[in-house]
Amino acid sequence: MIVLDINLTEDFLDKISEGKSLIHLADGEVVRLGAFPHGMQTGKPSVAFGFEVGDEAVVVAEMSFALLLTAVDTLKAKYGDPRD
Fold first, then answer.
1. Alpha helical stretches, state H, 1-84
2. Chain centroid, CA 12 distance in Å
3. Is residue 39 within 8 Å of residue 46, measured between CB atoms?
4. CA 24, 58, 5: angle at the middle one, nearest 5?
5. Residue-by-residue pLDDT tens, the chain, 84 positions
6. How far apart are CA 80 and CA 77, in angstroms?
7. Phi, psi values for residue 36, rounded to 5°
8. Which of 21, 22, 35, 39 has the fewest CB atoms within 10 Å around its CB?
9. Which residues in 1-84 belong to E strands, given as ranges?
10. Among 13, 34, 31, residue whose Cα is nearest residue 22
11. For the chain, what are the domain ranges?
12. Are the beta carbons of 20 and 14 closer than 8 angstroms?
């Protein structure tokens, strides 16, 4: 499973892309989010994000659903809930 690095600084993209090509999905591009009910070895759910890169590649990032919820809780603690 991947490691999710939660970085709440505004320049985090500069830090991770230093010396590398940065691919920024254009407006209107689709980021797919799906779930696997028993995706973890424990039988707990996992989630996966899918990013199409050009016509020939798809990048998939899968993590536990619990890890995604932790990331969302971290963002909400700093920025509040934008739905309010």
1. 12-17, 65-79
2. 14
3. yes
4. 60
5. 788 889 898 888 888 888 898 888 888 889 999 999 999 999 999 999 999 888 889 999 999 999 999 999 999 999 999 999
6. 6
7. -115, 110
8. 21
9. 31-36, 46-53, 57-64
10. 13
11. 31-84
12. no
